[in-house]
Amino acid sequence: MHLLEKAPFGRVLPAMVTPMHHDGSVDFEAAQVIAKTLVADGADGIVVNGTTGESPVTHMEEKVELVRAVKEVVDVPIISGAGSNDTAHSVRMVEQTQAAGADAVLVVVPYYSRPSQEGLYRHYKAINSSTDKPVIIYDVPARTGVKVALDTYVRLAQLEHVVAVKDATGDIAQAVRKRLETGLSWYSGDDGLFLPFLSVGAVGIISVIAHVAANPMLQLANAFDQGNIAQAQQLAVQLSPLVEAMNGNGFQAAMAKASLHVRGILDDTTMRLPNVGPSVEEFERVTRGMKASGLI
């Protein structure tokens, strides 16, 4: 018995941090160590160059090299963030990251400029025309200021390379209809809604807490898939203190770096401005969350 549909890019995909040296330069060797650790934990896909990877402040050549570095050391799908509010720049990122070996691209809805639904469609149509790899739409209206309408999703699903959605809208009721009317693969974009999204047809999650909780998250997905709903619920409850610790203050990238430092995997938690590395209080917060969830 299997309740979940096939996950084209894996069930549990950490939105991986981009480690940096103290001077702010990208530490590609540390990125390889993190990627290998995450896969050993149970992650069966990895997202690089996403928001948690500080994508707004890393440069094209760094994004490309990060894809190459991670691709060298793990044998799971590597998805690269390639979104911008400039369509031409997004196209360049898509082209260069896929040339570097990305198995798919995650393209956020254009932010700040708040385009119309027609503008959204044309944005993704341009990206679709520039790639041979799958495209995942990232719908996160709290950050972008615009939400993809159902009719637009139906149009986007007709584009050849658009195959999946990272849904961080928090709208589970609409996710049911969007998924059924488009046939796209649905991924939860919220750690706290992993189980509810699975219940309405999602195939997996792109996650912040998977930096330290990939194994229990994969157990949760497997339990649900096998119809053991009670076990899946128990695991969701077990992980809830970690979800709150790492997502509750809104600084997910800093908290993800803090969690890896607590694990002993990441020495330097430097971040590029305007974000700053975790404070003493944030290290304490994530430590409490990891302890309460039974991870340390």
Give the topology:
Layout: E1 12-14, H1 28-41, E2 46-48, H2 60-73, E3 78-81, H3 87-99, E4 104-108, H4 117-129, E5 135-139, H5 141-144, H6 150-156, E6 162-167, H7 172-182, E7 185-188, H8 194-199, E8 204-207, H9 210-225, H10 229-247, H11 252-263, H12 280-292
Parallel strand pairs: 1-8, 2-3, 3-4, 4-5, 5-6, 6-7, 7-8
Using brief descriptors, characterize the structure shown:
296 residues, alpha/beta, eight-stranded parallel sheet, 8 strands, 48% helix
Written overview of the protein:
This protein is an alpha/beta fold. The protein is 48% helix and 11% strand. It is built from twelve helices and eight strands. It has helices spanning 28-41, 60-73, 87-99, 117-129, 141-144, 150-156, 172-182, 194-199, 210-225, 229-247, 252-263, 280-292, and strands at residues 12-14, 46-48, 78-81, 104-108, 135-139, 162-167, 185-188, 204-207. It has an eight-stranded parallel sheet with strand order 1-8-7-6-5-4-3-2. Strand 7 (185-188), helix 8 and strand 8 (204-207) form a beta-alpha-beta unit. The longest helix is centred in the last third of the chain and has 19 residues, at 229-247. The protein starts with 11 loop residues before the first strand and ends with a helix. 49% of the residues are buried.
Strand order of the largest sheet: 1-8-7-6-5-4-3-2
For the secondary structure, the number of strands is: 8
Average pLDDT taken over every residue: 98
Distance between the termini: 33 Å
- Please indicate the percent range of residues in DSSP E strands (runs of 2 or more): 5-15%
Largest sheet geometry: 8 strands, parallel
Are there runs of 5+ residues with pLDDT below 50, and where? Answer: none
Give the SSE order as H and E letters.
EHEHEHEHEHHEHEHEHHHH
Which secondary-structure class do the elements indicate? alpha/beta
Rg of Cα set: 18 Å
Shape: globular
Share in helix: 40-55%
Number of helices: 12
